[in-house]
Amino acid sequence: MAEKATIYKATITLADMDRSIYGDYNLTVALHPSETVERMMVRILAFCYCAAENLTFTKGLSSMEEPDLWLKHDNGTILQWIEVGQPAPDRLKKASSQAQAVHVFSYGRGMDVWWRTNSAAIRALPKVTIHHFAADELQQLCALADKTMKLTVTITETIAYVSSATENVALSLRDMPQ
């Protein structure tokens, strides 16, 4: 029998000073059996950095046809296609043909090799923006992961300050060099 996803609940109080977005979000996030907690937490961060009324988590790893998150217009147009990890340039090219903007939140081991190998092809895609997080900062964020999380996230000058009842973490969102 296949393993089932583990469900995490996150209550986020968000203050994005860079975009003047403020709100409370109740997120239900499924941790796929093949997914790490680190990847799940990056998905939550991606949600915070892109927060908007119609931004939703998709089937993610369960579907090759969908990104990790997307923002759709009421008419079905994909405004933002949001990937987490190190997607192949072909996937980003497909996303570019379907969405008005594509954001990748990259992290993890091998990121430098992935970028060196794929940067020329990705740079040729004008709708694609690549962001990344430092591994040490993400490890601190993972310490906040719990099946029921209550987090306060303040974003200013692209730095996310994430607080739980007991811990505070700062994460810098960096753009890959163009």
From TrEMBL:
InterPro entries assigned to the protein according to its UniProt record, in alphabetical order: Restrct_endonuc-II-like, YaeQ, YaeQ_sf
Domain of life: Bacteria
Signal sequence range: none
Residue spans crossing the bilayer: none
Gene3D superfamilies documented for this protein: Restriction endonuclease-like alpha-beta roll domain
PANTHER family: SUCROSE PHOSPHORYLASE
Protein name, entry field: Cellulose synthase
Species for this entry: Cellvibrio mixtus
Lineage, uppermost ranks: Bacteria, Pseudomonadati, Pseudomonadota, Gammaproteobacteria, Cellvibrionales
